[in-house]
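Record type: ASSEMBLY
Status: queued
Input:
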Amino acid sequence: MSSNTRPRLRAVTLRSLGGSQLAIALAAIIALFVFGEIISPGFLSFGHLMSVLRLSVFLGIVALGQSLVVMAGGEGIDLSVGSVLSLGVCISSSLLLGKDANIPAALLGTLAAGFGIGMVNGAGISYIGIPPLIMTLAMASVVEGLSLIYTGGYPKGSSPPFLEALGNGRTVGIPNILLLWVVIIVGVTIILFRQRWGAVLFGVGANSVTAELSGINVKRFRMFVYGVSGSIAGLAGFFVLGYTGTPYLNLGAPYLMTSIAAVAIGGVSLAGGSGSYLGAAIGCVLLTTLSSILVALRTTEAVRQIVYGGLVFVIVVAYTRRRRD
Amino acid sequence: MKIRRVLQDPSFPSLLMLILLVVVNAIIQPEFFSFQVFRMNCMTFAPLILASLAQATVILVGAVDLSLGAGISLLTVVMASLMKDSAASIIGVTALGVCLALFLSLFNGFFFGYFGPPPLIMTFATSTMWFGISLLIMPTPGGYIPATYYGIYSKTVGGFLPVPVIVLLVAIAFCLLLGRLKAFRHLYAVGGSERAALASGINVASIKIFAFLISGVFTALAALCVVGQTATGDARSGQGFTLNSVAAAVIGGISFSGGKGNYAGAIFGGIILGLLTNIIYFANITSFYQEFMKGVIIIVALLFGALPRLRRALLPSREVVR
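Status: finished
Output:
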């Protein structure tokens, strides 16, 4: 990257954050909560609202890496986030062993493992030209195997008090992890809109040829974005451990496709180069509210799958139609 | 020059890989070329080869179908819960299964064709729905498949032609027939550049639906084979086919951006994955490593498929000479 190119920074406005699409998603969340209150009184209470938001955070962290990869364009998508999250849970619990003093080592180990996996994804995609969908899907298989090999089938360790307080504790009624998420959303929005790195990300996603001509090493940049997505997925595993307390295999599986759906619902174009993390975050809350409603309705797994799939289907089809008009 | 055409065919690298794997497999499994092993291999490979053909059709038009595996599961569940011993029931339920497969792919094709949502998310959503419906019909694997049905699948006609081979030959004949259709050439045009296809007067939406419909024919054949092989209905039996079919198509040289590649590549890709699974099995790898190896193998296979592209990148002058 040459230093004389000046990236175009975007203003943080309602429009650039997602505009009407965000308004629709927010309206949908409110409608779902009202509907929830009707079928199960107490759904709209502050306590329940907070617990839905808290559950959204874990999905939201996974969706952060997913958004970056999608924004970087080139049909970017990361289907390995679920299994990297699972591996993150196993690695961090085995390094933590229930002791607060081990947190730095566990954090570092988890981030490094995720970053390494992501970089392999990125190298295969950028330099060998394997389609992202298939590269990351195959990597998901590899990482799932790595979790099994690493743990021998039985993940050991547990989360220490500090991490448990972060994942489950509340400050003045607000879950601690939710406060952390708000900080992350603000920080990421600043990086994406007001920092050079964000401008480069949108530039690469919108038009890789122009980006290359203005001195950006597009291949290396995209590889790095996959590395970042991997380490964020690992980090999500670290936090999920704080929520569950003890590690299990395959905790990440439910997060994979939901993270992609959340990103799309949040107005991040799957073609890359546009969108905001705030949008994806609202998408996460919408999807988590939806599954919470389905639980409140005491539906069976089968009905939950049908309704969940059906709604994602309707949302995706409706959004595309609107964008065309 | 015919040889040059073969060498430049997008499926050529996968053919080389296929030959290499046949050699490796023959070395570690001495009876590889015996008729019994051939028959068994055909029985296990046929569903994946057919699923790869289905996926390849959809990839050629510029989409991807993540609901393929869940669709196969749904078909096994429906067939296993309805089929009875009588010949009329077997034929009727089989026909119903084929119709259902066509309906599922038409559903995907219709919304993809007319509304144009990102196929990845749209088919993920339908995949979730098909899985839910399968679970609703059959929460645990079971159902009943008459012995006559699965007996046919393991039969050998005339002492030299196993039934799965006949199914594959029918599929290949269907591929050849498709190649003669104008709509099939339009399918490549739409996959290559939707805008150009639109500008030259092609009805893009109906070509997309046509592609999904063809893929439905292959999916139906794949599901019929899976039922013949497993003789049960299982809401999860099709799961593996989604990743494997996409991988097989890409290994077979079918471009993910659409419009490039051919059915020969999809068939080679399917056989390659089958042979690789065989090799893992014979290498006696413990179950802990199997998932890991499966992923590694797909990545290695993709690397192999990417070799010509790498060579072109390193030696740009070659391209000019051509």
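Annotation: The first strand of chain A starts at residue 170 and ends at 171.
Annotation: Residues 146 and 174 of chain A are 36 Å apart (CA to CA).
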